[in-house]
Amino acid sequence: MRRSTVLRLAATAVLAGLAATACGTGAADDPANAGQTSQAPQPADIDTGATVDVRLVLEPTSLDIATTAGAALDQILLDNIYQGLLTRTEDDKIEPSLATSYEQSPDGLTYTFHLAKNATFHDGGKVTAADAVWSLRQVTAEGSTNPDAAALASVKSVSAADDHTVVVTLKHRDTGFTWGLTGRAGIVFKKGTDFSSLAGTENGTGPFKLSGWKRGSSITFVRDDAYWGKKAKVAKVVFHYIKDDSAANNAQQTGQTDIETAADATLLQPFSDKSKYTVLRGDTTDKFTLAFNNASGPTKDVRVRRAIRQAIDNAGLVKTLGGAAKLVGGPVPATDPGYEDLTSIDAYDPDSAKKLLKQAGYGSGLKLTVQIPNIYPAEIGDYLASELKQVNIQLSVRQVEFQTWLDAVFTKHDYQLSLVDHAEARDLNNFANPDYYFGYDNANVQKWYAAAQTASSDAERDALLRKSAKQVSEDAAADWLFVNQTLTVVRGGVTGVPRDFTSNRYDLADLAVAKKK
Questions:
Q1: How many CB atoms lie within 10 A of CB 434?
Q2: How many CB atoms lie within 10 A of CB 435?
Q3: How far apart are CA 223 and CA 242, in angstroms?
Q4: pLDDT tens digit string along 179-231?
Q5: Spatial distance between the Cα atoms of 465 and 452, rounded to a whole number of angstroms
Q6: What does the alpha-carbon distance between residue 217 and residue 242 come to, in Å, rounded to a whole number?
Q7: Can you give the pTM of this predicted structure?
Q8: Residue 187 to residue 305: CA distance in whole angstroms
Q9: Backbone angles phi, psi at 475, to 5 degrees
């Protein structure tokens, strides 16, 4: 069984732009149908000297992607500054990166990667197999502090066959191994890199280099004109960290930014002129999760957990927040392997919730506290309290700083209920680990999940994942309120803008700006 990943969550994914259903019309005055899934093609004549200003929400606390948790790092550094052996496309297909190709042995235990022979680090040094071997060994070493160490837990050994060939041997088949290499676990650093030096600097292999960081304000990338692969199409990208949605809207309207990510679906009217703006609608794996402490307190009783789920009208919550999102009913979103619509499990039924509470010994009422990072709208806590009040649960809402949440909830497991956005893809493993902050411990789920990782085919893997996810939902290990969608406002003339999964990675490879006539 995989070790748990360090929390990556969404210190980046604020609930902005609860967006649209798949049948969206693009109407900017209708939050439930805002945005579109296509954008203009790249113009024939582009400005290769252009600067593009991008609004993001939360900035990283450090640039040390080797040891610092938080999806804010992955969002800007993966693919742009750092590269791994493999990467993934916006539609989640695995493809080569620093490894131009690879082979898998028939037994699934050996992978051979062929590195690009012309790849270089930003300091000019050549990328060799020795660098890749050293980097992977840092992740797989005992006591590794890499936030994605769990992704390579199946690795037995890593070696170099020659200067440009890396051989990885696994302890057992691992259907998630190549996917794991597309994240930070697969990054190739220069051999001997002092990771502590990366906190404010970098020496990556990507098409952009770090130019500057104005803490609390912006991070600037510039094109690496010596890049070994396909050159970036813009000269500079500035990420502006603007938390407030109204301020972000103002920045976009006044030309301070060219791209506004995570736009609020209820604030799109100023961008209704399609000759000036495009509003893109994209999918995410942002699962807004109401966590229950499965290991202690009243929520240790499955009847209480099921009652809470049945007392909350998730569709009503989405409507209250001014937009639409995808209801899921379980821990696997539609874009991940093993997805199944589980919304019928513990569907909204306040009368049934009251009966379950009475059976659990709380017929006369129950008091609970939910801890919510203050990066999320207060309306969520208010809605949950109102819903639970109808079944005689008095919910106290505590909005806390994210670092406080990390310490109390994630690290110390000192909580009853918690709400946070689990943004990472393919993170069902959190429910297969009883030491994770959920405290959920089901031997069958652990067995099925482990078997899924060693399955002989994707079909076998997906069947086991579906079985695991359904059991997790039936045990009411949490309540998955919704999977967010995201809106991005783009100034006219800017193309190649990432649309999907923008909380996890923001690949700038296709970004281009039309040359002014």
A1: 16
A2: 11
A3: 23
A4: 999 999 999 999 999 999 999 899 999 999 999 999 999 999 999 999 999 99
A5: 6
A6: 8
A7: 0.82
A8: 40
A9: -85, 0
